[in-house]
Amino acid sequence: MLQTIALIAALLGGLMLFPAVADYLAGNPDWQVFAVSAAAILFTGGLVYSAMRKLKAELELRQIFIFVPLIWFMACVVGAIPLYLSGLDLSLTDAFFESASGFTTTGSTVLTGLDHLPPGILLWRSMVQWIGGLGVVVMGLVLLPSMRSGGQQLFLLESSDRSEKPFAHARIFAERITMVYLLLTLACAISYWMLGMSLFDAFNHGMTTVSTGGYSTSDGSMGSFGTTGILLTATIFMFLGGLPFIFLIRLSAGRFEKEVQIGYFIAMIAGATLAVLVTLILAGEPASGKQAVHVLFNVVSIITTTGYASEDYLTWGPAAVAVFFFLTFVGGCSGSTSGGYKQFRFVIVRQVIADSLAKTFRPHQVSRLKYGDRILDNEVVTSVMIFSFLYGGTFIIFAIIYGVLGLDFETAISGSATAIANVGPGIGNIIGPAGNFSILSDPIKWMLCFEMIVGRLEIMSVYVLLVPSFWK
After folding, report:
1. 236, 354, 375, 426 - which has most CB atoms within 10 Å?
2. What is the mean predicted confidence (pLDDT) over 227-250?
3. H helices within 304-377, ranges in order?
4. How many independent structural domains does the chain possess?
């Protein structure tokens, strides 16, 4: 386990050479920070890996529950090192927050003046989100189903079984996922560049769009590049990032298989877009194609938990704000880069509710819950319902804590929601699309980091470590 963590740390260190080169070419002295950080992390990680590489590398299920949170925490620490040592003069808290927000693809930020930051910092932020997004997909398709986290066992791949050896064919899936992920990123970046973005901006936004992370090179987010063509391109690639990557892999091989959650995903996007457009028209806004593009873009951005903004949608009226707040919790499909509750759970919970209501007047009715053509067993249903309880409970408890620590109602509830769902912007003047998280106190930032990591790891895979019997 330690050799794998050391290897990943060393790889992250090696990737720091890219922002080092970017800063060096721009004449920014922070290139030395990235170069020294890369050398130190490469040396340390390589040393640990070399010392332990002969140890047993295959993990059992119990070890995976420890391994996954450790990997994410280690990545956040490594990612924070150059940010902390850079000329930005960030506190340790802010550096870790920015890194954690990146690796979890949340996209909340404590930085301002992005348009004037050194290219190395901007590139590293984008790379952190891109790496995090790839890790999310691999984890969602290979690890979480084997860990039976929150109903994810429904998506056990052909290579998975109940033998506590979920890594059996992980490399094959990881290679396919990486190839599709890389091709989508390149296609997105090239599209942005052809539509008028600079090569640097296009490359950065290509990484943060497909990863549904939402970091930008500008304080104005996508609003700074907001031509209709760029917004529609971003909408398409955010949507693709919110689809199950196993679906995209099969589609690229010429195999189309119906996936129930995709239908729900599209229906929610269409319904939310229509609802916001109607509220704007009723408020007296003139209907136009441009307005429809902005609405669709922001709806897809929030439901996929990307967190870009083309406009400050909080100015669109309370009804629109309510729609966006609801979308904060929703999320994309399982096996995607998106965070949130996930569409497949809505499919299952809807059936559970409908079945329970039906049994109030037909108590002897025998029914079978299904996901597509598959009959759901009790383990999956129970796991989804427990996840739902923990998801809602975590959101409420942390929102209350933030309120006790001095945040206003809007900021407290939206801060907790955007962290647990890995969205990015909240609502209100402080952490809304036009604000950021820099003004929050350090204790609140650390708790938001915890929420971001717990939300990204699907809650149950972290909370299981708090159960005493796990350690026996």
Report:
1. 426
2. 94
3. 318-330, 343-361
4. 1
